[in-house]
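Structure ticket #2291
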Amino acid sequence: MTDASVAPTRIRFWGTRGSIAVPGPKTLRYGGNTTCVELRADGEVIVLDAGSGIRPLGIALQKEFQTRTIKLSLLITHAHWDHIQGFPFFKPAYDSNNEIRIFGFDGAGASFRDILAEPMKTPFFPITMRELSARMDINKLSDMTFSLGNVKVHAAFVNHPGVCAGYRIFTSAGSVAFLPDHEPYECFLHAGRGNQLSPQQAKEIAADEQAGMAQFLHGSDILILDAQYTDGEYKNHIGWGHGSISSAVSLALEADIQTLVLFHHDPHHDDEKVDAMLESARELVAKSGKPLKVAAAQEGAEILLDAKVAVA
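Resolution: structure written out below.
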């Protein structure tokens, strides 16, 4: 039974690419902008990461709200350029009428506030962070659970170089998990960290970490997950912090996800390559016999998550 009074959660992709923006005729369908996802739920506007995709998002928000105040929350997963490079070009930040709350964890050797300010420091940018007109509230996260209005958010640190978080967002229509950068824990068996351990120790750590991540994600309606590499490509990129098609499908199946969205497309992959990777992922699911749905994130596309159970 669906509760018609509960508005659907809306997810829109503004940047789906990893590493560097690659606009052009061969990336038209899946997009060339780097990581940025918008989520509307329970009266909240939530933005996930601030890659180059946040620039067109800002233009769209200004057009939608016009003279009304834009109130939004920006969740940052980590400080790599493809996740923060668009913020200096986010037009709502230059309007004193707007309110922007920004959340994230301290990075390796840098505070969260310094991380945000770095791209706008001289000589990298002509306007400093302090010159932005919007009412800015920068929040360094320390707790792994927090609230944005009526929306609950759980955070978990993922397997990516430096300090990197993933977020699971609980809305009245269901939960959405966002892990744009995550490498399978099996890398411990091959990379430097694993080589410092006995094979048995590395295997146990990998299994424990994988089980913990599956538990964190368990039952999510939507999982937006790093699937940057083909399985063949991953063998040459172990330790780089990104996942493969089979590792993404495996984690989604273990966590009983409803819909897996392949994300963080490699800059070398054109639309046809992403098509092939999507088909490969669906074949793996078919072999499993489980009802997991798989899609590949497309810039400009939307997903609506409707409430499934009426709230008494």
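Closing remark: The longest strand covers residues 9-15.
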